[in-house]
Amino acid sequence: MNEKFHTYKGYPLVRSGNQIYYGYMSDPYVIWIQIIGTKEEDGQKMTSKVRVVQMDTNEPDPMKAFVKNAERECGLYEALDIANVWLEKALNN
């Protein structure tokens, strides 16, 4: 697999519709961002609400894989900053 992914602060971003996965699936944790609200601004659709979930990649049961989560009224860049802080903390422990 020689695909090149978009990255944010050194971690890959993979988007499918309103879902974004942030981090390496080979690491112990990855962040799942779900866009749950949008608003129109200057004729562009902008993210207005997100759910951010830290997931344990070693947990076989998807329902037990959720380590922490939060819903925020914010844009995508703020969500990515939250994701980056959570991922850095989790991987450096």
Could you explain how this protein is built, in words?
The protein has a six-stranded antiparallel β-sheet with strand order 1-2-3-4-5-6, covered by helices on one side. With 93 residues, it is of the alpha+beta class. The chain has one helix spanning 76-91; strands at residues 6-8, 11-16, 19-22, 29-41, 44-56, 66-72. The chain is 17% helix and 49% strand. 18% of the residues are buried. The model has no long low-confidence stretch (mean pLDDT 94). Strand 1 and strand 2 (11-16) form a beta hairpin.
Number of continuous helical runs = 1
Radius of gyration: 14 Å
Strand content: over 45%
Return the string of H and E elements. EEEEEEH
Biggest sheet layout: 6 strands, antiparallel
- Roughly how much helix do the residues carry, as a percent range? 10-25%
Q: Tell me which oligomeric state these chains represent.
A: single chain
List the uncertain runs: none
Number of strands: 6
Distance between the termini: 30 Å
Secondary-structure class: alpha+beta
Q: Give the overall shape, derived from the CA principal axes.
A: globular
Largest sheet, spatial ordering of strands: 1-2-3-4-5-6
Give the integer mean of the pLDDT values.
94
